[in-house]
Amino acid sequence: MIETCLLTLTAGTNCNFVLHEEGEPRRLSLDLREQLLRIGQESLANAVRHAGARSIEAQLRFQKRQLQLRISDDGHGFDMEKASRLNGHFGLITMRERAKTIGASMVISSKISSGTSIEVTVKV
Fold first, then answer.
1. Quick one: angle between helices 30-49 and 91-101, nearest 10?
2. Is the Cβ–Cβ distance between 89 and 32 less than 8 Å?
3. Which backbone phi and psi does 29 adopt, to 5 degrees?
């Protein structure tokens, strides 16, 4: 799911990506899959369109009682405080709402000139 999204979003760009999968994949509910996919899509779109990322790494970790999705890029990064006050930009808000819908925690780390990392962890 993430790999297809990465291929689509990075087509025609100079952005390279790597996908790592760890653990034993298992069936997830339709809602859980959908919300994780949408969070992943938004993360990837932001990295390609807004951050000028040249490299994106996606990690999908299936652990005994939880699933973790982490997407990191080497883009421009952003000021988290300023981003939360921008009008008309709902990507981060929507991602947080999607995570909340499935009972997941979401941590966003970003620093100007140092890229961005988004990590979603959900019990399965």
1. 160
2. no
3. -60, 155
Say if residues 44 and 7 touch (Cβ distance below 8 Å): no
Place of tokens 């080497």: 74
Which two structure tokens, joined as six digits, stand for 78? 């952003």
pLDDT digits (tens, 9 = 90+) for 19-69: 899 999 989 999 999 999 899 889 988 888 888 899 999 999 999 999 999
Question: Which residues have CB under 8 Å from 10's CB, separation 6+?
Answer: 16, 17, 44, 48, 56
Displacement of CA 99 from its chain's centroid (Å): 11
Task: Check: CB of residue 101 under 8 Å from CB of residue 32.
Answer: no
The H or E element containing residue 62 is strand 55-62
Cα 73 → chain centroid: 10
Domains of the chain: 2-10+21-123 (3.30.565.10)
